[in-house]
């Protein structure tokens, strides 16, 4: 049996590697266990760092365009760079959905989630160190401060569920599902983030990632309606996993109607 591609022993990469030659040796313990976790830590750190800075230093005339482009392009770049190291998840709902669809081993799920959350905190701390006190305080450290009353909670929660479901389906269909796997996954995921932020930024803030919400909340100690940015994205990721597992996946992934 030929040796699996490098990410096959850790988790599904968000970039296909079919055109590359398979490695001539199996992965060692560092490459199989520790390096992927470091990739998730470093990738999430820089994604959250750049994303937070784009919000804290947002030019008022740019509106949602500046954070939308920065978050989307940062995702695309980090996915392309880290795909062959960790699989480029950088988001707890992605990791859970990929695991549920058979794209990674169970023993890597908890380490990945821990590294993503720690990376979120480190990235938020880096953003605080870089930006001015005035701008940092005004933006609550790029924590999601849009929700100030119970009135818009329903719409914001639904938006987080629906938009995270969309971007997670792009990940699963583009990287996990063999029938639809595409080398354009970094571009696809980045563009999906951009259109989600442009569409829903004024409704929920468009988090889509608990690690992106958790880091700034820890560093700035801002927790108002923070639960929305956990419940919504996780629920959206699970719905996407269920859709792929039950209806949209290929013969290998789909559990019913085979």
UniProtKB/TrEMBL annotation:
What Pfam families has UniProt attached to this entry?
Answer: MIP
Give the principal location in a single coarse category.
membrane
Task: Tell me the membrane topology, using the record's own terms.
Answer: Multi-pass membrane protein
- Look up and give the organism this protein is from: Seriola dumerili (Greater amberjack)
Query: Is the Lipid biosynthesis keyword given for this protein?
Result: no
Compartment(s) of residence: Basolateral cell membrane
- Gene3D superfamilies to which the protein is assigned, alphabetical: Glycerol uptake facilitator protein
Q: Which family does it belong to?
A: Belongs to the MIP/aquaporin (TC 1.A.8) family.
Q: What is this protein called?
A: Aquaporin 8a, tandem duplicate 2
One Gene Ontology cellular component term attached to this UniProt record is: basolateral plasma membrane
Q: Which terms are listed as keywords in the entry?
A: Cell membrane, Glycoprotein, Membrane, Phosphoprotein, Repeat, Transmembrane, Transmembrane helix, Transport
InterPro entries documented for this protein: Aquaporin-like, Aquaporin_8, Aquaporin_transptr, MIP
